[in-house]
Input
Amino acid sequence: MHPSILLTLLSLGSILPSTVAAPSPLIAKRAMDSLISIAPKSKTCVGAPFPAECKTAAQATPFINASFQTYGITSTGEAAAIVSLIAFESGDFRYNINHSSGHPGQGTRNMQSFALNLKYAKSIPALAEGLEEAGDDMKAVVALLTSKGEYDFGSAAWFLKNQCSEKVKAGLKAGTEEGWKIYTTECVGTTVTEERKAYWTRAAKALGVPGH
Output
């Protein structure tokens, strides 16, 4: 793990062995400030359209941290791609469900499709019973994932680990803009826009991706 991740975005406690002391208030504040620099509106949830869905940077940091640990995210380039994706897709962590018509079952912080949400949910043993009860009810399946922060914020790291090619992962680890563009178009399956790029640029800078 690149040290700049440990000193900026992550809160340290859940990524390091239990023998390591908890992060100091100063480190915790730097982590929150770094996430706010990537997702400016995450400073507060005041005025959020759906308050129950909103998470501040302070609330989001430990969940993002846990997702890196769970899914083996060890490079600043991968971390920047993940954080920029969820910040962009969730409107700075204000949404975890797509409220637009025509997108049933789309949700979690990276707003992935229902098909991916179902795969993701099936990969989590603790959700097995809930999935059986949910059946083919899309809202119920997504609710299982959005009900806990570790699942809700873990989707993007799961997606990168399990749905992206080794070529894409290598490009992200290299930390280049081209690598991020390939991830966006070939794995996420969407178009590179200036707004998306702005999120990634901020994340790359905040997380200390070499060259940024």
Summary: The longest helix spans residues 25-38. The radius of gyration is 16 Å.
